[in-house]
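Re-running Hydrolase TatD to confirm reproducibility after the cluster update. Everything else is unchanged from the original entry.
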Amino acid sequence: MDYFHPGDKEKQKEIFLKQIQLANEVKKPLMIHCRPSKRTVDAYRDLISILKDYPSTKANMHFFGGNLEIAKELLELGFTISFAGPITFVPDYDKVIEYLPLDMILSETDAPFAAPAPFRGRTCYPYYVSEVVKKIAEVKKIDLEEVKKQLVANVRRVFMKF
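Result of re-run:
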């Protein structure tokens, strides 16, 4: 759900419900895009409210932009959380990364947008994911190779088991 730009929130909720039903019907996980209004977590609140009614739904939260409280609620629902370039230059994400178990984290770039440091402001490329992974390892104080292996295992567990 995307509340960042003006749009029909009720229509978004209606379509999202159909996507949840389809994902559950075909036994596939959701890859959820959720973008709140500026300086709020409104879209996350609505999303979590809807998902609590569908406890069997499996999902990954793409390009997580929420806070620790939201991350905890998503974790309680059993969702993995994916981080992109902004974690390399927005320190607020450190608390979330520290809190989450490594086996519930995924990494991404959202190319061509949101390039990580040191490429901020430029076109983002998929291979920049290495900067995101390095930041996860740094924040969690875990060996980089161990983090890489676990993140690959996480992707396989979430998306390849179906």
